[in-house]
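To: structure subgroup
Subject: Chain for Friday's discussion

All,

I'm putting the inputs and outputs inline so they're searchable in the archive.
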Amino acid sequence: MSEAVSDVVHPVRLTTSDRVTLTIDVPDGTSVVDAAAATGYVLPGQCHAGTCGSCHAAATGAYRLGPHSAAALPDAAAAAGQVLLCRTYPTGPVEVTAPYARSRILDGRPGRREGVVTDVVRVAAQMVWVQIALESDDETGAGYQFDPGQFVEVQVPGDERRRAYSLVNTGNWNGTAELLVKLHPGGYFSGYLTDLLDRWPVAADDGARLVLHGPTGAFGLRESGRRPRWFVAGGTGLAPVLSLLRRMAEWGEPHPVRLFLGVPTPADLPRLPVLAELATTLPTLRLAVCVEHPDDGWTGAVGNPLAALEAAVAEHTGTAPDVYVCGPPGLVDAVAAVAAPAGLPPVVAERVLPT
C-alpha cells in the first residue's frame, strides 16, 4: 500500500540491465513499485512490504527508505545505495539501476492461470515436487512461457491466501508448471500438499486445482559470454537453479558449469530425475553435494556448500566464474563474502525469505 499522496510528483528514471530506460512519475508519498503499477509497469516483486527482497535495485538521488527487513536489505547495502523499490519513496529526481532485463517488467497486470495437479511426489524427507497442467488462456494460449528463475504465487481456489514458489521447469508450449515445495509443519500450503499426498492419486474433479499468479521475479542468467557459471543452492533454493540449468541444456550452452548443493542430512537430498538427466543433457555440469550432518551410509562430501565453494575458488584458474546463489540470507551473504575478495563478478542472488 502507498502512503499519503500529494500533487507533487518526482521523476524516476529506471534503467534495466539491457539498457532500456523507463521514466516513471512518482507522486510524493508513493513507492516506486506502486507508481510503476499505476503507469502500467509491474516491476519484479512479491510482498510489497519490504520483507522478501524481490524488488532489489540500486538508486541515486533524493529518496527515503520505508521500514523493511534487514534480511531483505542489510544496513550496509542500504548505505551503499541499494534499495527495495517497494519501500523507496522519492523526494526528488531518482536514478534507478535494475539488475534485470526489460523482459522482467510486465506490461499491464500479472498473469493468472488455473490448472489441475497432475502429479505430486515426495522427493525428500520434507520436500515435494508438484506438476500442474494449466488450462488454456484466451490471451496467452495453451503454453506457459516465462524466463527461467522466475516464481509464481500459488492459490487454492476459494482461499485468498497465496504462497510464492519458484518454477522448476522452463517455458513450454503444453502449459506445464513444476514446483519444488518444502513442507513446513502447520503450514497452509504444506497442509494442502500433505493431504493431497495422502489421497494420491485423486480424480481430476476431486479438488486438486490451483491458481497461479505471475510469473514474475528478477533472478536469472547473466549474459557474459562464455564465462563459467557456478551455482550455490540450499533447500528449495534448488528450484530456480534447476530452471536455469534446464534452459542452458535446452539451448546447448557450452559454459563450464558447477552446482554446489547443500542439504542438512542425506534424507534431505532431493531424488529428482531431472538432476540425473542434466548429467547427460548438460555435459559440462559438475555436481557437488554437501551434507552437513551425514549418517553412517553417506560417502560423499561433508559440510556446507560454502566450504565447497571456497575450496573451488581457491583452486580455480582461468576466467573468473559468474556465481549464482539461491537460499536463505545467511547463505547469500556468505557467498558474496567469498566472491568479492576473490575478484569475482558481483553475485547474482535470490534470497529465500518468509513473507
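Points worth raising on Friday:
The first strand starts at residue 9 and ends at 15.
The two ends are 15 Å apart (CA to CA).

D.
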